[in-house]
Amino acid sequence: QVQLVESGGGLVQAGGSLRLSCTASGRPFSTTATAWFRQSPGKEREFVAAIAWSGSTTDYAASVKGRFTISRDDATNTVNLQMNSLKPEDTAVYYCAARPFTIRTNHLAYDYWGQGTQVTVSS
Fold first, then answer.
1. Can you list the positions of beta strands (E) in 1-123?
2. What is the average pLDDT across 28-53?
3. What pLDDT, on the 0 to 100 scale, is given for residue 27?
4. Angular region, 45: left φ>0, alpha ψ -120 to 50, beta rest
5. Half-sphere exposure of 118 toward its Cβ, with a 13 Å CA cutoff?
6. Nearest-angstrom CA–CA distance, 11 and 101
7. Per-residue pLDDT tens digits for 24-35
8. What digits encode the pLDDT tens for the residues 81-95?
9. What whole-number distance in Å separates Cα of residue 44 and Cα of residue 122?
10. Is 107 exposed, middle or buried (0-12, 13-18, 19+ CB in 10 A)?
11. Which of 8, 12, 15, 20 could, after both became Cys, cross-link 81 (CB 3.0–4.6 A)?
12. Are 2 and 32 in contact (CB under 8 A)?
């Protein structure tokens, strides 16, 4: 079992930055791949970014590539998502998810989920 807790959401103006954090407990964190997904009302859950268990492999959705950076700190069991140059279309509830070892972009492949944190970008 892995328990995930997100933090760092909030309200920001377009062009601003936010840093989301996902802290894990339970299964050894060093063996999990961790991803961020987002969902806005009336839309399906959307892949944002992911980092493999080793930290050497990352993947990003085309819509956030170059603006968002995912990183992990195994010493604190934390995965961070640095979000820069935010746009109103980035507004959503952001979820942290985990699965063993390797990255997947399909949310159905993830076994563990956090409760979500709201990100709102005003124009």
1. 2-7, 10-13, 18-26, 32-39, 46-51, 58-60, 68-73, 78-83, 92-100, 112-113, 117-122
2. 93
3. 73
4. beta
5. 5
6. 33
7. 988 777 789 999
8. 999 999 999 999 999
9. 21
10. middle
11. 20
12. yes
